Amino acid sequence: xxxxxxxxxxxxxxxxxxxxxxxxxxxxxxxxxxxxxxxxxxxxxxxxxxxxxxxxxxxxxxxxxxxxxxxxxxxxxxxxxxxxxxxxxxxxxxxxxxxxxxxxxxxxxxxxxxxxxxxxxxxxxxxxxxxxxxxxxxxxxxxxxxxxxxxxxxxxxxxxxxxxxxxxxxxxxxxxxxxxxxxxxxxxxxxxxxxxxxxxxxxxxxxxxxxxxxxxxxxxxxxxxxxxxxxxxxxxxxxxxxxxxxxxxxxxxxxxxxxxxxxxxxxxxxxxxxxxxxxxxxxxxxxxxxxxxxxxxxxxxxxxxxxxxxxxxxxxxxxxxxxxxxxxxxxxxxxxxxxxxxxxxxxxxxxxxxxxxxxxxxxxxxxxxxxxxxxxxxxxxxxxxxxxxx
Length: 390
Prior knowledge:
Layout: H1 2-18, H2 50-68, H3 82-94, H4 102-113, H5 127-141, H6 147-159, H7 191-203, H8 211-222, E1 256-258, E2 264-266, H9 270-282, H10 290-301, H11 316-330, E3 334-336, E4 342-344, H12 345-356, H13 376-387
Antiparallel strand pairs: 1-2, 3-4
Helix pairs in contact: 2-12, 2-13, 3-4, 3-5, 3-13, 4-5, 5-6, 5-7, 7-9, 8-9, 9-10, 9-11, 11-13
C-alpha cells in the first residue's frame, strides 16, 4: 500500500508540473512545407507527462520495425540492404533490445556474414556508411563475442581515411576525410560519411591520441564556413555553419547564396553543422575552441525542429538524429537561440517527433531523399533521436 501511495503522489506531481507554463519556451509553429504534422489526439500527450508519451512512441516504432523485418533478418526493399539492416539493428539496440532477442540476433548474423576479406561490412556500394553502422551494432551487441569482426572493421575504416597512404597530403582538402571509397577507387570525402566514420571510431573506443582524430578535425574544419580555419577552401559568410564537402572548391546540398560583397557563396545547413559539432566534440576539442563556438552560434541562429534549416523537409529525420547526438555530446539541457530564448532541446525534439509519428508507429518523409521515403530508415533515425532525448 505504501508503494501504491508513493506512485499516486509521483503521478499527481507530474500532472501538476505539466500544467505549469514555461516562460522561456515558445510554441513551435507548424512546418510551412513538407508532410502534414499530426497533433497528438485528445486525452494523450496533452494530458500525460511527455516522458510517458515518448515511451509509448518508442514502443510503437519498435513494433513497426519488427513487423518490417524479413524472415531472413534484413530490412530494405527487395532482397534487403546491409546498410539499412545495420541501421535498424542499431535502433533496436539503442531502445533496449539485446543480442538475446531473435530479431537483433538474426540481423547481426546478416552483418557478420557480409564481412568481406578486407574487413569491411557491405554488399554493394556505400562501404563506409554500412561498415561504420555495422561496427557500432557489433560493439553494442557484444564486444567480446564479436571482437574479431570489430577489430577487422575498425582497421578497414581507419585504412580508408584519406591521408598520406593514398598520396593525399595535409594541403589537400580531402585530407582526413572519409568517403564512398578510397582515393585510388575514385572516392571523394564528405562530412556525412565522416560523421558516420567518427561515430564508429568513438563506439569502438579508438583513443583520442590516435592520429585519425587530428586528421578528422582538419577535414571538418575545412567544411566549416569560417575563414580562419578552412584554409580558403570555399567562400561563405563566416557563419560558422558546415557544408557537405570541401571537394573542388566546396559542395553544399543547400546550394549557393548571394554574398554581400557580390558573387556567390556556399550555403551552410543544419544537418551538416550538427554533424560537424558532434565530430569536434568526439575528437576531444574544448568547448571554448573557436570552431566549436562558431558551430554552436550557427545552431543558435537557426534554431528550429520544424525543418532541417536551409534544406526544408529534406533529410529531416537524419537531421533529428545528428542534432540529438550533437546536443548530447555538447551536454547542456537548454540551448539559447539568437534572441536569448531558452529551449529545452530534449522536450522540443521529442514533441516534434511525436507530432509526426504515423498510426502504425513509423515515420516517413514525403520529401523523399536519402532513403527517407522508406519507413524503416526515418523510423530508425527517429528512434535513435528519441533515445537521446530520455
